[in-house]
UniProtKB/TrEMBL annotation:
The keyword Protease does not apply. The chain crosses the membrane at residues 35-56, 68-90, 111-134. Keywords: Hydrolase, Membrane, Transmembrane, Transmembrane helix. PANTHER family: AB HYDROLASE SUPERFAMILY PROTEIN C4A8.06C. The keyword Transmembrane helix applies. InterPro entries: AB_hydrolase_1 (IPR000073), AB_hydrolase_fold (IPR029058), BD-FAE-like_dom (IPR049492), GDXG_lipolytic_enzyme (IPR050300). Pfam families: BD-FAE. Residues 1-11 have a biased composition (Polar residues). GO terms for molecular function: hydrolase activity. This is Alpha/beta hydrolase. Residues 200-407 form the BD-FAE-like domain. Residues 1-32 are annotated as: Disordered.
Length: 456
């Protein structure tokens, strides 16, 4: 074959584009990019819809407000995703020979993805700003690092003694004890506490939530707050109480055994460096309900009976500090939320043994607002310990109407109290105990304790 013929064959060889146009031949190259682009668009659309649900009620999605406890971390993550998507979108434009910007394939998908992420970032940032504005307006100096949740989970209790082997429920009830910490966060021994405070330090007793049917002294919210109180110099004690089951309603036993735990604290606080004569109750959700009820029953002189194994008398309650408490058991049962409603109704029925229409007298017996009215009718409302209530305006688990009703009655009867209904805030805002709303609750709790003579 001559040199001229070989050169001609080379120049006539079809290029890749010609090959791709021939039937039966498949073009090689990236084939997954369209799928990747559509997946990114779908994910960003879901993120945008979820953040919009923080503004507009969307069943099944509006619970994203609960993630607001890690708002700073989520916002930073969204900002990074948004910047990356914007960079990819801008890179999709190419200049033609005339210098004009031309879109490459997939540009519209990338631009739409970036726009949705910008929207999500803006909404999340706006909601975070609204929460921070409310919190700082209450005088709270926000710890930015704590907002991330770093170092906020709290340590395990230093001791977990048995309070009661409850033969009636078959449940073993323990207490978690956190000793006071020094300025460096190191645990103090009972001897070291008594050396610095001969009369002992005030005691904070924490009662966990969980719809009366799950959880214990080690709940994340309880543990985080107990550890924080210990770092403020308090002796913190978290109590178990018997959990309800489908076969055993505990609407009476839960209060009885929580009173038992308080009596145990009164009998044993001194050996741990505490002074049970200066005691405050802390409770979240169902724990807040129990804390309120025991406070009012103590004022009425109708505390429930408990086994003699628990110790002596229940100490006087000097303050009651609650987070999103169940202040209206009927309203809790009748929660209208399409997703959470059936779940919480089942918890209420498990606790009481039936629906409000079936056992109305039980719901009346455990209603904090009704008990407070009885205290007021007995002329004891002004002598009640100061009360703190912090709840989310958008609580999907415990309807905020109960907290509003309790606040209104506390104002009417002249009981010292402080209530905060925080905008764009849901249940368990202290799942990250360092969240902005949790920091405000801590700040106000500490102020009330000091004003009441329960400061360290």
């Amino acid at each position: 074959m001559s040199e001229t013929t070989g050169l001609q064959q080379l120049t006539e060889r079809p290029d890749a584009r010609q090959l791709s146009e021939q039937p039966g031949l498949r073009q090689r190259g990236p084939r997954r990019r369209p799928l990747l682009g559509r997946s990114a668009l779908a994910l960003s659309a879901f993120i945008a819809l979820t953040t919009l649900a923080e503004l507009i009620e969307i069943p099944g999605l509006s619970y994203s407000l609960m993630l607001g406890t890690w708002g700073l971390g989520i916002l930073v993550g969204l900002c990074l995703l948004t910047l990356l998507s914007l960079a990819v979108a801008l890179h999709s434009y190419r200049a033609d020979q005339a210098g004009r910007a031309r879109m490459t394939p997939g540009t519209r998908l990338r631009v739409a993805t970036a726009a949705l992420l910008v929207l999500a970032t803006a909404v999340t940032g706006g909601i975070g700003t609204a929460q921070l504005s409310y919190v700082t307006a209450q005088g709270t100096d926000v710890d930015i690092l704590a907002l991330t949740g770093i170092g906020q989970a709290g340590s395990a209790p230093d001791l977990e003694p048995v309070v009661l082997n409850d033969t009636e429920t078959g449940q073993l009830l323990r207490a978690g004890i956190w000793y006071p910490r020094d300025v460096d966060g190191q645990r103090l021994t009972a001897q070291e506490v008594r050396a610095a405070h001969p009369d002992g330090v005030p005691v904070i007793v924490l009662i966990h939530g969980g719809g009366w049917s799950n959880g214990n002294r080690l709940n994340p919210m309880t543990r985080g707050q107990a550890d924080w109180f210990a770092r403020q110099g308090y002796l913190a004690v978290a109590l178990d109480y018997p959990l309800s089951t489908t076969d055993q309603p505990t609407w009476q036993l839960a209060e009885s055994r929580t009173a038992c735990g308080l009596a145990w604290v009164g009998a044993h606080a001194t050996e741990h460096g505490g002074d049970a004569r200066r005691l405050a109750l802390v409770g979240d959700s169902a724990g807040g309900h129990l804390a309120l009820n025991l406070t009012y029953r103590q004022a009425l002189g109708t505390l429930p009976t408990y086994p003699t194994d628990c110790g002596g008398q229940v100490p006087d309650i000097g303050a009651v500090l609650t987070e999103y408490p169940i202040a209206d058991p009927v309203g809790f049962h009748d929660n209208p939320d399409l997703v959470m409603g059936p779940f919480v109704s089942e918890r209420a029925e498990r606790y009481t043994g039936g629906a409000p229409a079936e056992v109305p007298e039980r719901y009346e017996a455990i209603d904090p607002v009704r008990l407070l009215r009885q205290v007021a009718d007995a002329g004891q409302a002004a002598g009640l310990p100061p009360t703190l209530i912090v709840a989310g305006e958008r609580d999907h688990v415990v309807p905020v109407g109960g907290a509003r009703a309790l606040d209104a009655l506390l104002s009417e009867v002249g009981t010292e109290h402080e209530t905060h209904i925080v905008p764009f805030t849901d249940h368990v805002f202290d799942l990250n105990p360092g969240s902005a709303v949790s920091q405000m609750w801590r700040d106000r709790a500490l102020a009330i304790l000091k004003e009441t003579g329960l400061g360290v």
